[in-house]
């Protein structure tokens, strides 16, 4: 049972289905902020940066069609605006247009071969497409560029974890945490690799920290429950699994864990 209970959360973490670090940080997607950005565009209708920033805000708000329209306009004004190519690539990826996203990311790195965000975005796209080696190479490129973007280390850590190279994964998750210590995802990732190495105490500390940072992430509660389960404390495990299933009724590791400790 131990192998099964460990494998399921690791698989969830590897796919990135549960959590991601912030993808678009250029602007917040609030209505107030978008209104202020629209006012900037009205004052400077030929400024591609204004459209790029508002497009990022629309992306943050999940208004993908409006984001695409703004990135299109930015690129009409300045076809060499590599940040807008990469941002549009991200929105296309989120909309499921993988070929379009790949073309945009490729154009971004053609225009600026030192643009770390484009490599990270393209790496995530390659990972979505099952092209693990290409994804790994892009995350490596970003890291060699001395990126300060935690996503490069986090996503490379997921690939190391998927390959069972947990010591390398722990190093990468730790680097991600040093760059962005307010997100639960790298704590959950590192905790799962600690767990795979039999280091339950450090794993438990990471899962607890993930919950402290955001107590509405089902994966964090399910991971905490897994440690309780390994300790034989089914009462606490059941409570944490229940919390996870309340937050996300479709989260398979929590549902399966709850069945195990309730039988």
From TrEMBL:
Tell me if Repeat is a UniProt keyword of this record: yes
Query: InterPro entries attached here?
Result: TPR-like_helical_dom_sf, TPR_2, TPR_rpt, Ycf3
Q: What's in the GO CC field?
A: cell outer membrane
UniProt-annotated stretches for the region Disordered: 239-263
Report the superkingdom from the record. Answer: Bacteria
Q: Which UniProt keywords apply?
A: Repeat, TPR repeat
Biological process (GO) annotations held by this record are: receptor-mediated virion attachment to host cell
Polar residues composition bias: which ranges? Answer: 239-249
The UniProt entry annotates TPR repeats at 48-81, 82-115, 116-149, 150-183, 184-217, 218-251
Put simply, this protein is called: Tetratricopeptide repeat protein
């Amino acid at each position: 049972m131990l192998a099964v209970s460990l494998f399921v959360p690791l698989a969830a973490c590897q796919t990135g289905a549960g959590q991601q670090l912030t993808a678009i940080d250029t602007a917040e997607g609030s209505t107030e902020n978008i209104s202020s950005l629209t006012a900037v565009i009205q004052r400077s209708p030929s400024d591609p940066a204004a459209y790029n920033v508002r497009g990022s805000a629309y992306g943050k708000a999940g208004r993908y069609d409006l984001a695409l329209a703004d990135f299109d306009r930015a690129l009409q004004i300045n076809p060499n605006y590599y940040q807008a190519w990469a941002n549009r690539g991200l929105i296309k990826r989120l909309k499921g247009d993988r070929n379009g996203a790949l073309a945009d990311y490729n154009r971004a790195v053609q225009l600026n071969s030192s643009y770390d965000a484009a490599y990270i975005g393209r790496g995530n796209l390659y990972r979505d497409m099952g092209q693990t080696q290409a994804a790994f190479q892009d995350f490596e490129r970003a890291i060699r560029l001395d990126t300060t973007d935690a996503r490069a280390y986090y996503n490379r850590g997921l690939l190391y974890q998927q390959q069972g190279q947990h010591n390398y994964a722990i190093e990468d998750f730790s680097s991600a945490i040093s760059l962005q210590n307010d997100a639960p995802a790298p704590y959950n990732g590192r905790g799962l690799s600690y767990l795979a190495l039999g280091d339950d105490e450090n794993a438990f500390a990471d899962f607890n920290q993930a919950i402290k940072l955001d107590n509405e992430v089902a994966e964090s509660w399910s991971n905490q429950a897994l440690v309780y389960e390994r300790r034989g404390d089914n009462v606490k495990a059941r409570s944490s699994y229940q919390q996870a299933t309340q937050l996300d009724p479709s989260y398979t590791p929590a549902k399966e864990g709850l069945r195990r400790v309730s039988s």
